[in-house]
Amino acid sequence: MDGFQIFTTSTSLVESVDKKLLVVLRDGRKLIGILRSFDQFANLVLQDTIERIYVGDTYGDIPRGIFIIRGENVVLLGEIDEDKEDELPLRKVPVDEVLQIQRAEMEAKIKRERERHRLLSEQGFSVDAVEFGELY
């Protein structure tokens, strides 16, 4: 273990500066951008950021520019291998199309959940009255 140190704090982000990263946020958004800066709280500054929305085997990108992320909102952070990124079995579509597909999937999910809650209520089970789509 001579000269070997394990960093478990934001200091380990030093090697990721100026690299293309994927950041998954607490609210489920996925951001891709170049890490330009960070601090001791793991607050991040991403440049040339895009928000990528995945639906099935398709995705769409929304340009966001410079993006500042509060460290407590980061769930996952990883470097993107740009050579492998081009080989993904995903199809890029216009963002309007992916948002429309996403909206249709969400409406279908809400419909299924309402039906499920109705059936459970009819059988005497208690159902939480949480708004659909709320994560917290």
UniProtKB/TrEMBL annotation:
Subunit structure: Component of the heptameric LSM1-LSM7 complex that forms a seven-membered ring structure with a donut shape. Interacts with SLBP; interaction with SLBP occurs when histone mRNA is being rapidly degraded during the S phase. LSm subunits form a heteromer with a donut shape.
Any one GO MF annotation of this record: mRNA binding
InterPro entries (alphabetical): Lsm1, LSM_dom_sf, PTHR15588, Sm, Sm_dom_euk/arc
GO cellular component: Lsm1-7-Pat1 complex; P-body; ribonucleoprotein complex
Transmembrane annotation, as ranges: none
One of the protein's GO biological processes: deadenylation-dependent decapping of nuclear-transcribed mRNA
Organism from which the protein derives: Modicella reniformis
Domain Sm span(s) in chain numbering: 8-83
The keyword Phosphoprotein belongs to this UniProt entry's keyword annotation: yes
SUPFAM superfamilies according to UniProt: Sm-like ribonucleoproteins
Pfam families in the cross-refs: LSM
Gene: LSM1
Signal peptide: none
Function: Component of the cytoplasmic LSM1-LSM7 complex which is involved in mRNA degradation. Plays a role in the degradation of histone mRNAs, the only eukaryotic mRNAs that are not polyadenylated. Probably also part of an LSm subunits-containing complex involved in the general process of mRNA degradation.
Localization per record: Cytoplasm; Cytoplasm, P-body
Residue ranges of coiled coil: 96-123
Alphabetized UniProt keyword annotations: Coiled coil, Cytoplasm, mRNA processing, mRNA splicing, Phosphoprotein, Ribonucleoprotein, RNA-binding
Keyword Lipid biosynthesis: no
Protein name: U6 snRNA-associated Sm-like protein LSm1
CDD domains: LSm1
Similarity comment: family membership: Belongs to the snRNP Sm proteins family.
